TrEMBL record:
Protein name, as recorded: Thioesterase domain-containing protein
Compositional bias segments (type: Polar residues): 209-223
Gene3D superfamilies: alpha/beta hydrolase
Cross-referenced SUPFAM superfamilies: alpha/beta-Hydrolases
Length: 396
């Protein structure tokens, strides 16, 4: 797959192309599940895949910021569509990238008609994390849920894909070292409030956070480890790189078992015993893990007030397709990790996911019955396709 790949529609159509950006796995493959997004399947729909998963991807060097990655993708889409107006979209982290792409295009004097985000939170909301161990641990958690989603899709008689799922373990997206960030994991608390200009759907049980409100000094990043013995103890529980690599081997084995069991029910003459296949699966999963790790680092660099214009209003229409909250509870999480889940749950459940509606020409939230992990599962694809179709309806 190339960085920009035609997923559906007619590339010679008079309709404006719709570009959909990958989530944190770096893969645009899930978008292939969508039904036609225009009448007679005419509008060209392109998926944006990370260069890491494309030919020559081993040599790809990640940009230093999310905005720099967006600028790279703007260069790529301009090879397909040199001039605006542009239609952009993305799933989770992909929506964050699409929003940055819109800002890059705006700065270039181009017109953006609409940005459609599928369950994408405002990256300005998330603090960074002061520990490399925390970054590694939460990469591990995110990767584990990604692979679990793959196997679930295979069990549903779907072809295996590298699903860019982060769900409520999305806290891995921002918990990563960043010297230029003033907010860190130790500075959020469930006792203060953050509010976007759109109220929460779940105000009764939605703890929230304010980027400008420090948490307990005893365990802030500036307090020093001597004040946080419990925190230090929990850090010792985080997995090592060797443990994470062992997890990849296990995941590769699980995918192979699921794939071969499915194959045994099909054509018995099909060659299933390819000596190179396990290594290919392992390499594929290793790239997903690396992309998750890098993606979390990029999101951590977004400062409050950095993404959206501080003064004025963006001139494009924004739609947030809001997934059903997915209750996430893992008894194996440490207390520190569980606190992260609580915080991210508050962001995921906030109606506008902390986007400020008054920063856009028009902002609307559309409810969707699928959860974040299962958005592209067979039982939800029809509804999701219909929502995208309606968002694009009437646009030239």
């Amino acid at each position: 797959m190339e960085v920009i790949t035609l997923l559906q529609g007619d590339e010679d159509s008079h309709l404006t192309p719709f570009f959909m950006c990958h989530a944190i796995s770096g893969l645009a493959l899930p978008f292939l599940r969508l039904e036609a997004l225009s009448e007679d399947d005419e509008r060209p729909v392109y998926g944006i895949t990370s260069p890491m998963h494309c030919p020559g991807g081993d040599d790809f060097e990640f940009p230093e910021t999310l905005r720099d990655l967006a600028a790279l993708y703007v260069e790529k889409i301009k090879e397909v569509q040199p001039m605006g107006p542009y239609l952009l979209g993305g799933w989770s982290m992909g929506g964050m990238i699409a929003m940055n792409m819109a800002m890059v295009l705006r700065d270039q004097g181009e017109k953006v008609t609409k940005v459609i985000m599928l369950d994408s939170a405002n990256p300005e909301t998330f603090p960074s994390f002061p520990s490399a161990k925390d970054h590694r641990s939460l990469t591990h958690l995110t990767f584990t849920r990604t692979v679990a989603a793959d196997i679930r899709l295979m069990d549903a008689d779907c072809s295996p894909i590298g699903s860019p799922v982060i769900s409520e373990s999305e806290f891995g997206d921002y918990l990563t070292p960043s010297e230029n960030r003033t907010s860190t994991w130790g500075t959020f608390t469930t006792e203060v409030s953050y509010s976007s200009s759109t109220s929460s759907d779940y105000e009764d049980d939605s703890p929230a956070w304010s980027p400008s409100t420090p948490g307990s000094p005893a365990c802030s990043s500036d307090a020093g480890s001597e004040y946080c013995p419990e925190q230090n103890r929990m850090l010792e529980d985080f997995p090592t790189e060797d443990q994470i690599d062992a997890e990849i081997l296990t995941a590769a084995h699980d995918l192979e078992v699921a794939k071969h069991e499915d194959g045994e029910e099909g054509d018995e003459d099909e060659e299933l015993d390819d000596d190179n296949e396990p290594d290919q699966v392992r390499d594929f999963l290793q790239k997903i893990k690396k992309h998750i790790h890098k993606g979390l680092g990029l999101i951590s660099t977004v400062e409050p007030g950095q993404l959206l214009p501080k003064d004025g209003v963006s001139d494009f229409h924004t739609v947030l397709i809001k997934c059903k909250p997915d209750p996430f509870d893992d008894p194996n999480l440490t207390q520190r990790e569980r606190e992260g889940v609580i915080f991210v749950r508050s962001v995921m459940r906030e109606k506008a996911m902390c986007w400020e509606a008054d920063k856009f020409a028009k902002f609307e939230t559309v409810p969707f019955s699928g959860d974040h992990d299962g958005a592209f599962e067979p039982q939800h694809v029809g509804e999701l396709s219909g929502i995208f179709r309606k968002c694009l309806q009437g646009l030239a």
